[in-house]
Amino acid sequence: MLGCRWLLALLALLTVGFPNPGGAEEGLRFPSHDGAPRVLSVTASNYRAALRGSPVVALLLHRPGGTRREREERVLELAAQVLEDKGVGFGFVDAEKDAATAQKLGMTEENSIYIFKGDEVIEYDGELSADTLVEFLLDVLEDPVEFIEGDHELRAFENIEEDPKVIGYFKGVESEYFKAFSAAAAEFHPYIPFFATFDPKVARKLTLKLNEIDFYEPFMEEPLTLPTPPQGKEEIAAFVEEHKRATLRKLKPESMYETWEDDIDGIHIVAFAEEDDPDGFEFLETLKEVARDNTDNPELSIIWIDPEDFPLLIPFWEKTFGIDLSRPQIGVVNVTDADSVWLPMADEDDLPDAAELEEWIEDVLEGEISTEDDDDDNDDDADDDD
Ligand SMILES: *[C@@H]1O[C@H](CO)[C@@H](O)[C@H](O)[C@H]1NC(C)=O
């Protein structure tokens, strides 16, 4: 499973067996909506049945009318079709007509999708596209804890760099400590992957003692160990909650809104770097080095954006921030008005080294570099529609 989520998503698309509209190659057929309605309109009278109808149910809270709604319906219908055999049900709740139902279900934010799985409610705070939503729901369907056994799986675990990860060493599935760990995992699933091992050899390589739990921030080589094991569910959850805002975090389509809303005193330090590009790669390595050196600073959290993950947003960002995204950039963005300042670089050969970058970041944190410095008035209106 490790690192293969995209593959799963692709397999799901391939195995559904919808009619082939364009005569595409056998074995590589992208779905289009077949026209059958699958998304329920969820109201006070049918919400109980809707939630009982499938093991996982995804409900979107929407405001009626407008083109936005049509687009949302198309995305949900396609996702519902693709995931039909996987046991995922879909529905809309009308924020006006069925406000009471929404409230009963704990759905507060319009245009958000709430995913119900057993007793858990997961809020989806990602991009509303069928690909990203399907990928996310396939993750939701998996168990919250993955098991690591043997060298290959250990290597796959170690190769996870962009996501935070939690791992514990336990006696077995019957262990009380494992059960507490598993219950904590369910609270963060699927945003933060949890792993467990029962294999003493794996534990030794990770320097884990029995019932010990380690938390790895993204891009960090050294874990934080939970104090004094063994821990109960609440302690584990509190520790993960406390450390989950990473020093360096990647903006991902499936959690982009959640990440963006988690600003630090109204600003974000944002770095654009394309990992597949030599300059972008080099800049990213410098950024990781600086993040590792400053991981103890709770004031620092840099958002890394790989523009390739968001092709549709590139022109928007270039215009809003007045930068050229064909090369690496780092800047400060005010989340209220999208006003920004960027580290000056003459060209792509003028990348800062770790010391220069660290100095610039320090200036930002001390308020010496601020988006308010140059306030002339030709900013573009950053949030023209929704
Ligand atoms: C961000 O912009 C708003 C509106 O222009 C301003 O009031 C606020 O002080 C700015 N915040 C920071 C941290 O510069």
- SSE string, helix = H, strand = E? HEHEHEHEEHEHEHEHEEHEHEHEHEEH
Mind describing the biggest β-sheet? 5 strands, mixed
Supply the number of structural domains: 3
* Oligomeric state of shown chains: single chain
The CATH topology of the largest domain: Glutaredoxin
Q: How many strands appear in the DSSP assignment?
A: 15
Gross morphology is: globular
Highest-level CATH class of the largest domain: Alpha Beta
Helix-strand makeup class:
alpha/beta
Family: Belongs to the calsequestrin family.
Protein name: Calsequestrin
Organism: Phasianus colchicus (Common pheasant)
GO molecular function: calcium ion binding
Describe the structure.
This protein is α/β, with parallel strands linked by helices. The chain has helices spanning 5-15, 47-53, 66-82, 99-104, 130-141, 150-158, 176-188, 200-205, 233-243, 256-261, 278-293, 314-321, 354-365, and strands at residues 40-42, 56-62, 88-94, 113-117, 120-124, 145-147, 165-169, 194-197, 213-216, 224-225, 248-250, 267-272, 302-305, 329-334, 340-342. β4 (113-117) and β5 (120-124) form a beta hairpin. The longest helix has 17 residues, at 66-82. The model is unreliable at 1-19 and 377-386 (pLDDT under 50). 2-acetamido-2-deoxy-beta-D-glucopyranose binds next to loops.
Which descriptors apply to this entry?
five-stranded mixed beta sheet; 386 residues; binds 2-acetamido-2-deoxy-beta-D-glucopyranose; single chain; disordered C terminus; globular; Glutaredoxin; alpha/beta
